[in-house]
Write the structure tokens for this entry.
Amino acid sequence: MNDYFIYLSFIGIALVLSYITWQIFIFISSVPDEQRDYLDKPPFIFHILWFLIKPISFYITPFISKKNSERIEKKLIFAGKDFIFKVKDIIASKIVFSLTLLFISILLLEACELDLTYSIAFSIYGFIYPELWLRSEKLKRERIILREIPFFLDIIVLCVEAGLTFINAVDQAVNKSNQTPTRQEFSRLLADVKKGVPRSDALRKMSSRVEHASMQNLTSAIIQAESMGMNLGPILRGQAEQRRVERFLRAEKLALEAPVKMLFPLVAFIFPCTFIVIGFPLYVMMKDAFQ
């Protein structure tokens, strides 16, 4: 009788697992194919979990609020990842990372016999990781643009002073530069102008995609010079020099902040080791002397 009950239990568990597996298969297979020909390939960590992110993003789309959608869309634009992800992909990745880290942490913590409350911390980190990653990419992108913009402007100045128009000069600078965020922004500027967007509006759109005062000052100066009919050569040369000065000031600021940032590692790690190396021989000598 007991063996019969065990067999029935195994059959029931197998049927339940089969039903759950079948429902998951239906959940994933019923998602229509997404047209990603115009989108770039996601980063590695997102790519390996894309088979989960894709169906979840499809099902949660009706529940995404407009406010939340606009907030994440701005972060995607500032990070330069709007050609990789949509808003629904980021929200779905928050859910997937949270559940994945929760599952992995439960397995590891159970194996190590630790408190399961750590799993909650891992799950929370997984939920906020996509937005932390977007913030990191935004800062990295801004640093690259601010570092490259003076040289980029120098190329545009040379072309403008050689007789080209501003748009043709930007086109030459884009064609002669490497694939960087700076080139990407000016390429989008050219694309907007070719689509019929007024030049001033295209410049404002470019400054809105880079949330930094330097880019906003640059675009404002170009728009004002064109509206007043001024020669763009001296304006752009002055902007390039100003960007170089700002870059030097940022480097000087970071150099002045370095000693303060090094204070905690010195106090927490280096000083204790130094005191141990110096104090232990003294302790041994004093111990021997008193004995």
Observations:
- The chain has two domains: 2-141, 143-249.
- The chain has a mean pLDDT of 84.
- The chain is about 80% helix and 0% strand.
